[in-house]
Design goal:
Elements (H helix, E strand, L loop, with lengths): L2 H32 L9 H15 L11 E4 L3 E4 L1 H11 L29 E3 L11 E7 L11 H5 L3 E5 L8 H4 L5 E5 H6 L5 H5 L3 E6 L2 H4 L5 H12 L3 E6 L1 H15 L3 H4 L5 H12 E7 L6 H4 L23 H10 L7 H11 L4 E5 L6
Parallel strand pairs: 4-5, 4-9, 5-6, 6-7, 7-8, 9-10
Antiparallel strand pairs: 1-2, 3-8
Length: about 375
């Protein structure tokens, strides 16, 4: 007689557990689908950054950084508002287009932004009247790839008249592999957030320039958070000249992609990498460009078991840590329908530019 209620209690408890698990699975599944692929085990932080880009790309109506998912704290940390994240993601979870596999060959190199004043559109922060004026004979464009750890290219890199670096890539501790000179650092807005305003990255460079890029809301000269941070960086580093891309410049860079591939960024489900902006500015300010650490578009295909790290250093973004393999990351991005980089496509395009500009690729060395 006393068995009956006990069984009922167990059944109810079992049912509730199942319901709870089903609900949890559903939420997890949904959440994963909204971003990239299920195999991604990125932290919320990285997902959040990715989402910002998706929102930026598709131009969600009513979306603004003030009310969006990633809340920035003291310039380095972000928290997540899951409610907003899901609401926004529901709007953007559109099926992406096919990733680009075989972009149409360009018949011409990119048409310059301004044939006369080649560096127009790179303006000072906070003084927007000032324009970047760098002219170099030989430039070394140093990628952030783990490839560089296989070589000791540091001395060779430093021999270039100008050295261009990207995002949060450090020099300290890696001089042997990446050299110790920095003339220009090109940085995406997220890296501007990640790097402390006064720290070794900017200190080490001595007299040098920082060139930031980002979406309109972040770069807005009155209210943009990235602009504010760049201003702070400029105030705290007297030797550093700080610049940013105007939105006209951003539009031009996007248009170059469209000219090269026949597809807009939106249609390709992509956003440009810092490498893209770095190559463009290098072609505008340098006579000769030597690219270091950038493997060819075929490298991953030709080296199926390659274990080269994505970055030569450990980024503050833990997802981009030492275990992340470059080829895996490239491949994942290429096949992700939306909000991803097209590293292979960009490499194909850089290789094409090498036929029109004096661009060579080193460590690993390859000829387009
Ligand atoms: C940044 O904010 C986090 C969280 O509020 C805090 O733990 C951390 O100490 C802060 N860092 C600095 C440098 O202020
Ligand atoms: C998260 O966003 C929702 C919707 O905008 C808002 O109602 C809620 O207060 C936010 N929560 C936090 C902790 O900021
Ligand atoms: C801003 O830059 C321009 C051009 O270099 C210069 O003429 C002007 O004096 C600068 N303004 C300030 C307030 O520094
Ligand atoms: C770094 O800088 C110093 C001089 O500033 C130089 O002597 C040294 O060889 C440089 N290169 C490397 C790879 O450390
Ligand atoms: C890559 O690894 C697979 C499986 O371990 C092996 O069969 C193959 O021969 C390797 N390929 C190369 C090019 O080393
Ligand atoms: C590129 O620059 C190098 C170094 O100045 C030079 O030797 C080479 O001839 C140039 N190539 C072309 C195609 O202009």
């Amino acid at each position: 007689m006393s068995l009956l209620p006990r069984i009922t209690v167990r059944r109810v408890a079992g049912l509730m557990t199942s319901l709870f698990l089903a609900g949890l699975t559903y939420v997890m599944f949904r959440t994963d689908r909204l971003f990239i692929r299920r195999e991604y085990s990125w932290s919320l932080h990285a997902r959040c950054l990715l989402l910002q880009h998706q929102l930026f790309l598709v131009g969600v109506p009513g979306w603004s950084p003030e009310g969006h998912a990633c809340r920035q704290l003291n310039g380095t940390e972000l928290t997540l508002n899951a409610t907003e994240l899901l609401q926004n993601a529901a709007v953007t979870a559109t099926k992406g287009p096919e990733p680009l596999k075989n972009p149409k060959p360009a018949v011409e190199p990119p048409v310059p932004f301004d044939r006369v004043n080649r560096l127009r559109g790179y303006v000072g922060v906070p003084n927007a009247t000032k324009e970047l004026s760098l002219r170099c004979r030989v430039c070394a464009v140093v990628s952030n790839s783990g490839q560089l750890l296989k070589y000791e290219a540091g001395n060779e890199i430093d021999q270039a008249d100008c050295v261009i670096r990207m995002n949060d890539a450090p020099v300290l501790g890696f001089e042997k592999h990446v050299g110790n000179k920095t003339t220009l650092r090109v940085s995406c807005f997220q890296s501007v957030y990640l790097v402390p305003a006064s720290g070794s990255l900017y200190d080490q460079a001595g007299k040098s320039a920082l060139l930031g890029w980002g979406p309109p809301k972040d770069m807005d000269t009155r209210r943009g958070k990235a602009h504010r941070k760049l201003k702070l960086v400029s105030e705290m580093n007297r030797d550093l000249e700080v610049y940013m891309l105007t939105q006209e410049r951003m539009g031009y860079s996007a248009n170059v992609y469209k000219e090269e591939t026949g597809k807009s960024l939106e249609a390709s489900g992509t956003w440009l990498s810092t490498g893209w902006f770095s190559m463009l500015v290098a072609m505008e300010m340098c006579d000769v460009i030597k690219v270091y650490g950038l493997s060819s578009e075929n490298y991953c295909k030709d080296h199926p078991n390659d274990t080269t790290r994505y970055h030569y250093y450990v980024s503050k973004l833990k997802e981009l840590g030492p275990k992340l393999k470059e080829c895996d990351f490239y491949k994942r991005h290429q096949r992700t329908p939306n909000g991803a980089h097209r590293f292979f496509t960009e490499k194909t395009i850089f290789a094409r530019w090498a036929h029109h500009h004096n661009v060579t690729f080193h460590y690993p060395s390859w000829t387009p």
